Amino acid sequence: ECSPYAAHLYDAEKKNTPMRTIPGLCQDYCTQVWQNCRSIFRSLSADPELIALENNMAKFCRYLSLEDKKNCFPHLLANQNLNQNLEKKTADAEGCLQLCLAEVANGLRNPVAMVHANDGTHRFFIAEQVGLVWTYLPDGSRLEKPFLNISEAVLTSPWEGDERGFLCIVFHPKFKFNGKVYVYYSVEVRYEERIRISEFRISPADMNALDHGSERIILEIEEPASNHNGGELLFGDDGYLYIFTGDGGMAGDPFGTFGNAQNKSALLGKVLRIEKKNNDGGPLYRIPADNPFISDPAARPEVFAYGVRNMWRCSFDRGDPHTKEGKGRQKKGDVGQNKYEEVDIVEKGKNYGWRAREGFSCYDKKLCANSSLDDVLPIYAYPHKMGKSVTGGYVYRGCESPNLNGLYIFGDFMSGRLMSLKEDHATGEWQYSEICMGTGQTCMFPGLKKNYYQYIISFAEDEAGQKQKKQFSWVCLVFFFCLFCLKKKLYFLSTGVPSATAPHGVVYKVVDTSRGKELIVQCMCPFFKKKAPPGKCQVEPSPVEVKSKRIPFVPKEKFIMKTKKTHPRLQTTTEAPRGAGKKKGRAAGQPGSSPGASTEKKPGQGTAQPGSSPGPGTKKRPGQGAAESGRRRKKKKKNNGAVRLMRQGRRGRGRGRVEIFIDGQWGTVCDDGWSLPAAAVVCRQLGFPYAVRASKKAEFGEGTSLRILLDDVQCSGQEGTLLECSHADVGTHNCSHEEDAGVVCSKKKVTG
User: Any idea where the SRCR domain is (predicted)?
Assistant: First the structure.
């Protein structure tokens, strides 16, 4: 978590140097710091010798000086030897920004939202579509008791793709003082489906649980269909609550003359804005005085913006920490109908065009031709060949990943594509770039991974980067910023099975391994002397009183260091070479994929046939005569991840039950989540370029004599082995041999 350049600031290149608690300061800068804010060092360091020198500037600055003047702060920032490669971004040949991931939580049932309370505790709360919200502590552990459980009231189903359920949770900006939380979920009332917005209060007996008896229904909206439920709640900088609804469902918004979205007297297909201040004993909510249609008798006063189809995940930009550029700007992802997905900037009173327009094109041509429509075009739209269900994200602000600064990062639920937009201030246009998972050695560090579950449900930020009080001079503020810059982190939530009851959801933290110059002073701790643990530079969370059992976090995948493969001499074999047919490069539309290794043979490096004699010039080992040609050769040692196909008790040719070799034993793979991309990985390993079918339900028999070694396997299709795909811990499964997976492979492409 710390910059390697912090080692210079702390004079920590050698283990025998005394441990410092404050980075080395250059003489002129130290003088300014001492004159303006020397009192802050009592809060930054427990070094008694440093504190004893607080009132003697000369001795104080001499104590903080470094022998190498080039490495003190801020001279270090101009050291060309250290800085020459810091701004270099890691990108592939197509310019796709390469990032890595770290797993944060797993085993979740369609995690739809991850939020924080902004109360200094640095807890985060993850909501599942079934109606449960879980508390996660700063150490990554989860509390056994849910923060909220309204699963009996929430309307949803196990059907894949069901859009109903618990959809959002947001904490009141003054939650620390009033304990209020707001939720958005689907309910059924007297056979009528509705959207419900409710207020809960924190339990007086447990700060990690809501009082379930405190629910106060703020708003209910009838849903004419089971889809297009919207599902976002946000508090803006103005203190008002924003509610993002869908158009009511079905296709083409068929309700009324022009649809719900264009009807300002309906609450569906809208951005609503209400006031939730001082309303405990009064009305459920008030209407802000500057709402755009408050004086229009034909419109609902709650309406802030209209003409939207099915907004899924919206956010406010926190703005550039220095210039405040972009602060308060609201972006939304709006899911399209048949052709386009779009991203918009939401502004007061604006019409976003649905159902007249889908993206930049006309959907209802008659309505689109209406000159009075006056709709706002999206900042970006993409066709369905790239993805079919946009998931809105965040504009990243902070120095944890400076290469991402100012990028609006979002994704697509169906294709699993991660994308970004950056504003060109000269033209006002937004430039698109794709985000890829790191290739080669980019993500080869413990705790990092480069693959993820396809169905991207939501994005999130944590509670890092609290603003500093402004009672110090500019010198103190600069010093504070260098020590505690905005370490905001970006996350996304996805699943391998898009069902509200399938526990395949994972939360990933986005990691940029090619972080920039800001990292020199982002995390000034003596980490490299191994006397301070990683994370020491993080803001200290406020204490949390825990009354429930803690469940420690266990990642689904353990880090496996890949060693360089050796190439033994080819032996007599009738099997196809491992890895044959693997394609080079990242497959279009396959997020998280990595280049496959080529297995083309060098000229003349053919495979020997049984019974053939050595070619000219082939040397025999000493003592190897003709009589030894029939001797059984020593078996080649199996590599982890090797696979074979079994059918009716014998080896299958191109079809059969998948068995995998891991840590010295063969075992089977569960079909829970088994898919064609995973089958393609197996087929390529066995020399088949095409996977015809991913077989399920033990079609080729049950491998009852073996252990089940892999479950929850999710592949992009370009991995080298199944171990490179996402999967549960080896040997951990929730299935039986009745679900043993299989494949059908082919040498030729099968169509139809």
Answer: 643-746
